[in-house]
Write a structure and sequence with these properties.
By secondary structure, this protein is α/β, with parallel strands linked by helices. The chain folds into 3 domains: 76 residues, no CATH class; 95 residues, Orthogonal Bundle (Arc Repressor Mutant, subunit A); 141 residues, Rossmann fold (3-Layer(aba) Sandwich). Helices cover 36% and strands 19% of the residues. It has 10 helices and 14 strands. A 5-stranded mixed β-sheet has the order 1-2-3-4-5. Helix 7 links the parallel strand 8 and strand 9. It is globular, with a radius of gyration of 22 Å.
Length: 340
């Protein structure tokens, strides 16, 4: 890799160009390795500071679920990226601290100030900001205090100092990380990710839902849950407790309505599918044959159910669910469309 600057942050990075359509970067300020498309590379220079944080947080979220080198592809829409909650930022910081420890009893030394960009400690400073979704050390210190209040980190027993100077992961901290690495597999829930537009209500209520319920599973779509928490927290929580996902990639025509752009690529559903893949939760892709957009090349390796009618969608989805997971516990004989 050649030394260069990160297109997102303009800070020191390494780059390798493997083909004409994408660049491979290793950037401490972006949290590590990532791939960026040509169009995103050209657009990155004009990002606002808030947008840089959003893109970096998206990269961190992908790495936290096992995607070591996330791809910023043309389908990733900046307005589809959700700002991580304080809890998520603390969780990502805990993951980063753990990644820096050689042994479970080792201590981590958080950055105490902004070092010179050529200093050896700059890499740790930049990565800490990236993984915590921060732009200043005050935010990092706040998150460290939060981690300590949850008893996930504590002061180093060998060095008398606060967690902002030296810290170790506690038993509870290691237990939390182990829990995050093990998704629920005995669930009866299917999470549905799709475009929330009236034009797809028929597909959802008369195709996807009956297809899932026919096999004895329950369908959950985030707009149908009670809004007790932030939307991004609920999505992550519901995906983690699901046995599988049904992701419909149908796009709408790009139109301008009341000053807002509607339709086009649904970047959020690709994000939710990638999150599930990182947790090793199976994903079933569906898409209307008349969708004006094309399924992005990143998921073309997966088998997608292309449907014309809701009846076809229900039937083929139920067949795919049974083939992969069998019937769920709420399945009854009368649920079988073929009379079995």
């Amino acid at each position: 890799m050649e030394k260069t600057t990160c297109p997102i942050w303009g800070t020191p990075a390494e780059c390798e160009i493997r083909d004409d359509s994408s660049w491979h970067f290793n950037s401490p300020r972006a949290g590590g390795r990532y791939i960026i498309s040509r169009s995103w590379y050209q657009m990155a220079e004009g990002l606002s500071n808030e947008q840089r944080i959003l893109v970096t947080s998206w990269l961190v979220s992908q790495r936290s679920v096992g995607n070591a080198e996330p791809r910023i592809s043309d389908t990733l829409a900046i307005d589809s990226i959700r700002r991580p909650s304080v809890y998520q930022r603390a969780e990502y910081l805990l993951r980063y601290i753990n990644s820096q420890l050689s042994n479970i009893s080792d201590h981590f030394e958080p950055p105490s100030g902004r070092p010179n960009i050529n200093h050896s400690s700059w890499k740790r400073y930049a990565e800490t900001l990236a993984w915590s979704g921060s732009t200043m050390l005050e935010d990092v210190h706040y998150l460290l205090d939060f981690l300590a209040s949850q008893d996930w980190i504590g002061p180093s027993p060998s060095i008398r100092a606060s967690v902002k100077t030296y810290c170790i992961l506690t038993v509870r901290g290691h237990a939390l990380l182990a829990e995050l690495e093990n998704p629920i597999v005995d669930s009866t829930q299917a999470f549905v990710a799709m475009w929330f537009d009236k034009s797809l209500d028929n597909a959802y209520y008369n195709g996807i839902v009956p297809g899932i319920e026919e096999c004895g599973y329950s369908a959950v779509r985030i707009d149908q849950t009670e809004p007790l928490d932030k939307l991004d927290d609920r999505i992550i929580a519901e995906i983690r407790r699901s046995k599988f996902l049904v992701v419909d990639l149908t796009e709408g025509e790009v139109v301008k309505e009341d000053g807002a752009i509607k339709g086009g690529t649904r970047g959020s559903v690709y994000y939710e599918a990638g999150f599930a893949h990182g947790l090793e939760i199976p994903v079933i892709f569906t898409c209307c044959k008349n969708s004006p957009g094309k399924v992005h090349f990143d998921i073309q390796q997966y088998s997608c159910i292309y449907w014309n009618t809701t009846e076809e969608l229900q039937k083929r989805l139920a067949q795919r669910i049974r083939a992969n997971f069998g019937d769920g516990p709420s399945h009854t004989e009368s649920d079988n469309g073929d009379g079995r």
